[in-house]
Design goal:
Elements lengths: L16 E5 L2 E5 L9 H9 L15 E4 L2 E4 L4 E2 L2 E2 L2 H7 L4 H8 L1 H7 L12 H9 L1 H15 L19
Antiparallel strand pairs: 1-2, 3-4, 5-6
Helix pairs in contact: 5-6
Amino acid sequence: LIAQVIEASTQVGGQIRDATVGPRQLDVGAEAMHLAAPQVGALIDELGLTDTMITARRGTSWLLTPAGLRPLPEGVGPAGPTRLRPVLTSRVMTTKGLARAGLEPALARRGGIDLSPGHDISVGDFVAARFGRQVVDRFVDPLLGSLHAGDVRTLFDRHVALHVDV
């Protein structure tokens, strides 16, 4: 059997690679699959690959901030924070960033984001307009961007919905 690998970058693996971040060597890129959609699991099953899946180990996810590594606060997912208290005590955001995010209820009532048919806005721009850039840079891009191996400022979703519990 002869195989030919065609790769556009200087190294094989595409988005999957290792990188030095601060003092640590980390795996970066799109090395995971989101299995919440039942069709993905069904496809893996249909292809006979279920037994070859390596699932993630339980552990703490970390965020790299200007102040160093911080554990991912409880209630923070790819769409951003859903619980306020863990974010407030996490030291992931600055006081200024927290204050800006706290303006979200007033800004949401005021409107200002064009969500009409035919008008696209990136997920990152939408979240930044609502909660500020720090929420995007420190939560949404590291989580959602890494799931899609891209920048949330160029990722578009016509069905953006955020829910924040206080």
